[in-house]
Design a protein that fits this description.
Length: about 400
Amino acid sequence: MSRYFMTELAVRQCETSVPDSRRLMAENAIRKQIARCSPQAGKYSGPVLVMSEERLRQNVRSFMAAMPRVRPHFAVKANPDAEILRIFKEEGTYFEIASIAELDAMLELGVDIETVFYSNPIKSPAAIKHAAVHGVVWFAVDTPEEIIKIAAIKQDAKLYLRIEVSNEGSAWPLAGKFGASATGVDALIEMAKKQAVQIAGVTFHVGSQCTNVNNWVEGIRSAKRIFEKLHDNGFAPELLNLGGGYPLQFTGDEPTIDEIALEINEALLSIPDSIQIMAEPGRYFVGSAGCLISQVVGLATRDDQRWLYLDTGVYGGLMELAEGFPSIMVSQRTGEAEIWTIAGPTCDSIDVLGKYSLPRNTEVEDLIFIPNLGAYCTPCASTFNGFPAPRMTMVG
Ligand SMILES: Cc1ncc(COP(=O)(O)O)c(C=O)c1O
C-alpha cells in the first residue's frame, strides 16, 4: 500500500468512545484489509471486491476455537461464491441454505445433503420438492401453514421451530418478518401433531451484526423452555440452532467472537449433551475478508453541500450502507477532511449512501476503499442502469 496514503483511518466516522487498545486493534485489521487491495488498486478497471482466502480461513478457525460445541453451518446467502464455499468445506464447515439455487450450489460442491439445513421459514412447494428429492432432511418452520406444506411433500422431514427473540442491538434486525411467538409455538406444536410430522429442534436469529450478547443468552433460555414443551407433547428434540448475527469489528466497540463465546458457552451448559448445537454464521465468516475498491466518478456542490459520486452504489451491492449499516470509507488521498454526501452512479434518487468524512481535495478518479464488505455486497448487486456490478477477486 506504499503508493496509497489513507486519510486518517475513518473509524471515527462511526462515533466511538472505546478504549484505545480495542480501537487500534479494529483499525489495524481494517488497514490490513486495505493493504491487501494494493495490486488491484494499481490496475483499477471497475468496482472490485478483494477477498482474502487467509482471512476466510482464519474467521472459520476463530469461530470454531471460540465455541467448540457449536457446529457452524455457513449461511450461503452471505456470499455464495463457489470458491468461498470450497474453502469453507475444506475448513470443515457445514452449510445453511434458503433457496433452490443455494441447494444447487451444495450439490455442485459435493457436500452430504443430509447435513444441509434449509432455514428459510417460507419455502415454495417447488423448493421443498427439490430439496426432498435431493435428500434435505432439516427444514425451518415458523407458521402452521408451512408445516402443512412440508407434511404434504416430505412426511419424514425433521422440522426446527424458528422462535422470536430480541433483536435489540442488531444493526440489521430480522425480527417481525420471522419467528413464532409463544402462542405461535403452541399452534406449531398442535399442527405438527395433526400432520404427524416431527419437530426435532429449535432455532432463532438475533439479527445481523448483533452487538448485544444477551440476545443469544435469552434465545438459549427460551429454546430450553420449548424443549420441555416439546417433550411434554411427545416430541424428541435433538437440535439447537443459534442462527447468525455474529458481528464484524468497525470501531472495536463490538464484542469479539471470544467475548460472545464466553456467554454462549456458559448458557449452553444448561442444554443436555444429547442436543446437537449448531449456528449459521454468515457475515462473520466472510465480511472481514472482503474490501471493496470503488472510484470517484463525479463531484458536485449543491448549495452548501458537497456531493461525491462513486462508480457503484445502492444497486451495486451497497444497499446496507444506505440503510445506516456501520461502514467506513477510506480514500487513497490524504488531506484535511470534510463531510461529503456519497451517492452511487445511477439516475435513481434512492441511490445515496449517506454522509462520510473524506479529504476536501478529493478528485474525480480517486479510489475509495470500503472494508468489511465480504458479506451481502456482491450477492446483492445488480447492473441497473448499465453500471457493472462489483466483481470479486480472491487474493491470498
Ligand atoms: C436464517 C438465517 N440464518 C443465518 C443468517 C446469517 O446471518 P448473519 O449474516 O447475520 O450471520 C441469516 C441472515 O439473514 C438468516 O436469515
